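To: structure desk
From: M.T.
Subject: fold request, one chain
Message: Could you run this one when you get a chance? Sequence is below, nothing fancy, just the single chain.
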Amino acid sequence: MLKDQATDSTAVLFFDGDCPLCNRVLTFILSNEIKADLMFSPLNASSTERWREAHPSMLMDEDSVYYFDGTNLYKKSTAVLQLLPKLRWYTGILKLGWLFPLKLRDRCYDFVAARRKRIFKECIVDPRLMGRMLH
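Reply: Done. Structure tokens follow.
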């Protein structure tokens, strides 16, 4: 977890906009969220750059997913697990991920991340993202 005194309490999921797997995960989130209050931003977008400037102590790189809950910034597997309470009850089985040590979770995350563009070729952007992107 990366801490900063954030002034904006909007929850944001930062992702690789060119990643086919990331876009499929966003479709899953949009289909299973409890409340439509989560914003999204590709890591290479100008909106993310402005967010980074407003939160200089919260460092990000281009090879990970980040979840800002309004107070704290989480990355990789922890970002995914922190996002789960925003999803419907039946996704709760995924909370079992907390049982695994952080290093193991992040190694699994890195393994998939390194292969994501070879496994999933087509990048399909869900039209429901329009209006939900960080400005």
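Reply (cont.): The domain at 2-125 is CATH 3.40.30 (Glutaredoxin). Let me know if you need anything else for the meeting.
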